[in-house]
Amino acid sequence: MAIKPTNEQEAARDAFTTGRDLALVAGAGTGKTSTLVLMGAAAGRRRGVYISFNREIADHAKTVFGPNVECRTAHSFAYRAVGRRYADRIQRSAHLPPAETARRLGIARNLVINGRTIKINHQARLVMGMVRRFCYTTAEAVMARHLEPVNGLTFDEQDYLATVLHPYAKKAWEDIQSPHGNLRFEHDHYLKMWALTRPTLPGEFVLLDEAQDTNPVLEEIFLNQPAQRVCVGDPSQQIYEWRFAKDVMSGFPALQLRLTKSFRFGPAVAEQANRWLKHAGADLRLAGFEARSSRLDELPEADAVLVRSNNDALAEIIGYQQLGVPVELCGGGNALRRIAQAAQQLKEGKGTSHAELFLFKTWDEVQEYVEHDRTAADLRTLVNLVDTYGPEAIIQAVDRLAPKGKGKVMVSTVHKAKGREWARVRIGPGFHPPVADHNDVPQPIRLDEARLAYVAVTRASDILDTEGLSWLDEHEKQLAALADDSGKLNTRLIALPLTKQLAYPGAPVSRFMTRHLPGVQAVRDDYLRRVADAPKAVQPLDARSPNWPSLGHVVDYRLRLSLGSSLGGAVPYGVLLVQDENNPLRGTAPRGVARKSLAAAGQELLTRLAAYRRAPDDTDDDELTRLCYVAAQYERIFREGSIEATSLLAGLRHEVTLDGLLARVPAYAVDDAAAQMRLAQPVFERFWRLPPDKIKCAPVPEGSADLGGADGDFVLDGLLLDCKSTLYPRRIGREEIYQLAGYTLLDYADAFGITAVGFYLSRQGALIDWPLKDFLTMLGADKPVSEFRQLLKAELWRVGRECPGLPLRVNQ
Hints:
812 residues, alpha/beta, Rossmann fold, 32 helices, globular
C-alpha cells in the first residue's frame, strides 16, 4: 500500500512543477527518493534525467521512476559519450605493472630526497595518483598539488617531489587522452574527459541525488546544465570532504526546500539528531515518526557498534571475539591486514611497498616520524593501532572475523556506516570533545565532527545507546555559559576581534547580528546568483602546498600599494612582537641570534616598503611581491601570536637577512601575484584614478576599540570592499556577509562615508557589491543605519562594562 506523501513532499512536488531550480535538503530517513519520484511523475510529458554517483542506487532508481526519467550514474553518461571509444584500452591496461608504467613515462632512476629513496615504481604510482586526483577536481590541468601526501617527507620535501613529478603527470594525462596511448586507462579518466567538453544532459530537468557528497566533476556538470536543476541531499551528512566530495546544495542559487519528517526513527532519536544538527551549524531540525517507539537506552547487545576509527573498531572486535560473539567488520578487514603485514616487514627491517609506509626502512623510523611531525595525524592513528595490539594480534583478529552476513554484531566506522541502518545501535569509542583554547575557553565542536556524530546517531531505528558521545551534556553546559551575558567565560569573547567573534554564536557581535539582521540567507542567495558566471580562479599550477594565507595577504598588499597606501598596522605590529624577546612566540619561533636577526630584517623590510612608496619606479614588480610575501609572515605573527610550520620564518636557527628571506620566497608566489594584478586592472582602474581623500586602505572603524579589533580592507569612494583571494567563491557565507555589516556598523559616526559594500574576488577578477541600503534591507534592517550603529555601540559598551579587566575603550 502506497504511503501518503507528507505536506513537505507535496510542497516539493508542486514547486518542481513551476520549473524553478530547487535545492531539497532532506534529513536522515525523510524519503528523498520517493520525493524525487513524485517530481518525475508530476513532470507530465517532460523528459528528465536522474543522476547518482553509485551504480546500485541508479539501478534501484530505474525500478521506481517512470519511463520519462532516465536513471544513470555520471560514469554511465560519460561512457556513452566518451568512454566507449576507449573500451579496449580499459581492458588492455587493467593490470599494467608499476615498473612498466614507469618505463612508459620515462622514469628511469630512483629519486633520493634527504636520504630517503623513492623507487621508480613508487614514482610511477604517485604520478598516476596525481592524474587520478586531478580527475576528481574541476581543474582544467594537472597541478603539482594533486600529489597525494607522502609520509616521511617534510612540507618542503613534498613540494620538491611534486615539482619533479609534475611534468610526468602532465605527460601521463596527454597519453591518457590519446586514442593510441599506452598507459593504464581508468573509468574516472573518461568521466573527466567528458566533463571538460562542458556536456549538456539529455533532459528538460536534471535530478541530482546525494548532492552533499558530489564529486566536484559532477558538481560542475550539474551546475552548467541549461535545464531545470534539482539537487537533493543532506548537507549535514557531508563526511567525505577528505575524498574531494563537495556540498553542491549550500552554494546552489535555487529555491531551498526541506524534508524534516524522518520515517527511520521516532522522536527520541530525532531529538539526539537535532542536538548534533545544531552543532553542525544546520538550520534543519528533524521530527521523528510517532509510529516508531525509538528510545535511548544502554545496549548490552547491539546490532551495530559505530566507532570513530579503525583503531577503535579493532578494540571492539577483539572484545567481542574474547566473549565468543561472532563479529563482522563493515567493509572487511583487508585494510587492517595490509597495515599489519607492512608493520611486520618494517619490524624485520625488510621495508614495505605499502602506499603509506614505503619511504620507511624500519618501524622505529615510522614511530619517530609520527612523534615529531605534526602533519602525520592520519598515520599516527595507524601507528597507535599497531603499537597497541601488535601486527600478529591484528592479523589474528582479522582472520577470526565472521563471514559477511554471519555476524551477531556489526562493527563499523561511521564513514562505512553511511547509508545503512540497524534496529539497535551503540555509539562506541573514538569521539572526543574539543580541547579548550590557550585561554581555557571551551571551543565549539568542529563542524565535520558534528556531522559525523549526526550520521552515527541517525543509523538507529529502535534503540540508540549514546555511550561514546556521553560527554555532550557537559560540553553543551560549558558552551551555554559562553552565551550567558553574565557568565564569566563570556568576558573573553568580547575581547575577540570581529572576525573571530562571528565564529561564536554566543559572542556579542554574533548575537547582535542574528537578532537585528537575520536575513543573511537572502544576501547569500543574491550573491550566489551573481557569482555563478564568475570565471575560473587563477591559481599556482606547479606548487603542491601553496601558502594560501600568505598569497591572500600579498594581493591585498599589492592592491593597497597600488592605491598609494601603506600595508596597514598589522605588519609593523608583527615586527614589534618579534623584537620583544620577552614575548614568547608559539609554534616554530626562532630563538637567540636567529630571532634578533629576524627582528632586524623586519625593520629593514618596513624601511624598504616606505622607500617604495616614496619612489615606486625604483622597485620592480617581482621584488615588490617578494617584499609583500615576507611582510605577510610578520602579519601572521601579529594575528596568531605564533610562527606556523608553513611560514617562511619557521625553524630558523641561524642569523638571517632580509635579502636571504626574499630569496626564499617561492617563485609561484611571484607568478600568482602577477596573475591577480592583471585581473585587477579592469576593476581597479576607476579606483586608481580616485583622489587620495577618497581612498582608505585597512580602515579601522571607531568601534574597533570596543572589542578585540576590526580592520577592513578598503573603503574606496564610499565602497567598503572586502578582498577575497578564494578559489571557491561559492563558499562565502554567513561570517563573511556579517563582516561587511560589522565593519559598517562599527563606523559609529560614519567617518568613512560608506554608501555601498561588496566583495572583490581577486582570483576571478570579479566585483560583487550592493548599495548599503539594499544590503541592509536584504539583511532585514527595519531602521536607518545610524540607529543600528548606536544600538551596536550600546551593546558593546554594556558588555564591556561587565568585563572591567579587559583592555576595551569603555574601561580606559
